[in-house]
Amino acid sequence: QVRVVESGGGLVQAGGSLRLSCAASGSIFSINAMGWYRQAPGKQRELVATITTGGRTNYADAVKGRFTISRDNAKNTMYLQMNSLKPEDTAVYYCNADGVLVGLKYDSWGQGTQVTVSS
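-> structure tokens emitted (119 positions)
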């Protein structure tokens, strides 16, 4: 299996920046893609950005041009650089890794890290 652990959340003023990290461990070779999701109070979890092992990225419209997803394969770590933060970006951010291991698909989730943007 694959285990992912997020870090880097915190409190920031609107217009500020934060960088989230997601460290993966375990059967790293089996990962197909990794991504960031977020869940605000009273709302469903939503996609923020994803990145494949080949480096292809995908972003939610709400974060395009402000957030950048990247991964350092040597460190087994994925990042989310968040710039020009807005109060509506406030949420718990979750790291996800999906892949196939011994013929079975899996989804691994982290425990989440809180991002709070004050106005």
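The mean pLDDT is 96.
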